[in-house]
Amino acid sequence: MSKKLTRRKFLRNSAVTAVVAPTAAQLLTSCASAPNYAVNKLRHAAIGVGGMGGADLKQIAAHKDVVIVALCDVDANNLATAAELHPEARTYTDWRELLEAEHHRLDSVNVTTPDHMHAPISYKAIELGLHVYCQKPLTHTVLESRRLKEIAQRKHVVTQMGIQNHSAANYSVAKQLFDQDHIKDIHEVHVWTDRPAGWWPQGVERPEGEDPIPAHLDWDKWIGVAPMRPYKEGNYHAFSWRGRLDFGTGAQGDMGCHLMDPATWFLQLGHPLTIKSTGPAPTADTFPLESHVEYHFPATSKTSAAGVKVVWHDGKNKPTALLEKYGFGDKPYENGSLFIGSNGAYMFSPYELPKTTFNDKLADILLPEPHATNHWHQWVDACFGRVAASAPFDYSAHLTEVALLGNIALRFPNETLNWQGKRMRFEGNDAATAMLSKEYREGWRFSGLI
Ligand SMILES: NC(=O)c1ccc[n+]([C@@H]2O[C@H](COP(=O)([O-])OP(=O)(O)OC[C@H]3O[C@@H](n4cnc5c(N)ncnc54)[C@H](O)[C@@H]3O)[C@@H](O)[C@H]2O)c1
Fold first, then answer.
1. pLDDT in tens, 353-401
2. pTM of the prediction?
3. 222 Cα nearest atom in ligand 1
């Protein structure tokens, strides 16, 4: 049994055994290099501490049973800001060095970098036996999602994807409404977002020229597994990478993991059978400014016997006519979903409790009790074996895959892609199948992952 496994078991045992005084052997095996840390703390490292990384670090560090051991960021300014808040933590600009040097005295990491680095960092951390909280979308490719799910199961680590709304009260209420069959036989779902909304470059080509790399940024490490390209201010770091094919996942990757979650979870969707995009194709470098992607999923106990059509809309293209038809025309959310069943329709918002979101037929349903959990703290508690994480990779790899399949469909406008989920291939479309994975840059290839 490895030292890591011993410690993980100890953490779980300490959760159920009120107060457990660590034995000398436990202290030696678990905390040899960090003798000042109480052993019943989760020793955590944050990788990517700017932007959402700041929020993830703040939330995780606020749990009473967490101690922040190490911080990593390729931007020295962001690293310095985080280090001011956690002066006791060791700092790194290379996550590979952090894992190498710290993994013996670590229990967990969070990965809050741009999307293209989620899988390599999470994979290596899990390989070392660490629990992982990774931002959405879980990965950049479908193959990476499958590999992360597989290694997380094999290493028995506790995982969570950063879809914090999944643990919010409105989701718990809506889940019960579906579980109790108040809304039945769903045959159609529309999901929409107001992104990309001009917040980052999308629908454009790669910028020409080159700008000086800021002294505080390690551009080579920011690029990581992606093909090297010249630095260009305002196009990549920070935040603006989202729309670029090499680094981000466009509006559907960015918001799909939040907004496709209700349909995927409430209706217990499996692999889609077909996927078709009827919007514009991406440019050579970025996702398009708007998209419409239609999926057909096989029947579940929550759908009609013929299965369910799920349509993703982004770029401010709400399904206005349908929202009006079902009585939601006067108050459509900017981001949401519309479920259409045999007994009525229901509009779901990730941000509001369902009080005014039923049409007439469902309006008199007595709402279940809301139940909210802090998504980050729930994951920490799951690392101690106190509760289960609500969005483990077992689930979130599938949710991410659904969104990423939509991104592949964008490359084949108006073509129906036949997805063979179990075999992980598109029937009769080798070009689409090739997009399920990607090459990593020379020097950044990790065995087992690609
Ligand atoms: N759950 C949510 O609501 C939510 C909200 C925003 C962002 N996100 C997700 O969080 C992730 C980060 O998004 P963001 O908007 O904060 O991006 P960002 O570009 O603003 O910040 C990324 C941070 O990671 C650092 N970084 C980049 N490459 C790194 C590497 N290889 N190693 C270590 N640090 C690295 C950057 O320097 C920066 O500090 C994305 O996956 C995004 O989808 C989630």
1. 887 788 888 888 888 889 999 999 999 999 999 999 999 999 999 999 9
2. 0.93
3. 28
The residue whose C-alpha atom lies closest to atom 37 belonging to ligand 1 is: 75
Closest atom of ligand 1 to 224 CA is 31
Q: Residue 82: CB within 6 Å of ligand 1?
A: no
> Are 313 and 326 spatial neighbours (Cβ–Cβ below 8 Å)?
no
Which CATH number applies to 168-210+238-369+399-434?
3.30.360.10
Question: Whose Cα sits closest to atom 33 in ligand 1?
Answer: 73
- Report CA(241)–ligand 1 centroid distance (Å): 10
As beta bridge partners, residue 309 has 188, 296
pLDDT tens for residues 57-71?
999 999 999 999 999
Among 121, 132, 135, 195, the mutation site with the greatest number of ligand 1 atoms within 8 A of its Cβ is 135
The answer to whether 286 and 204 have CB atoms below 8 angstroms apart is yes
User: Which CATH architecture does the domain made up of 3-166+379-393 adopt?
Assistant: 3-Layer(aba) Sandwich (3.40)
Calpha distance 317→234 (Å, rounded): 27
What is the longest distance spanned by two Cα atoms in the chain? 69
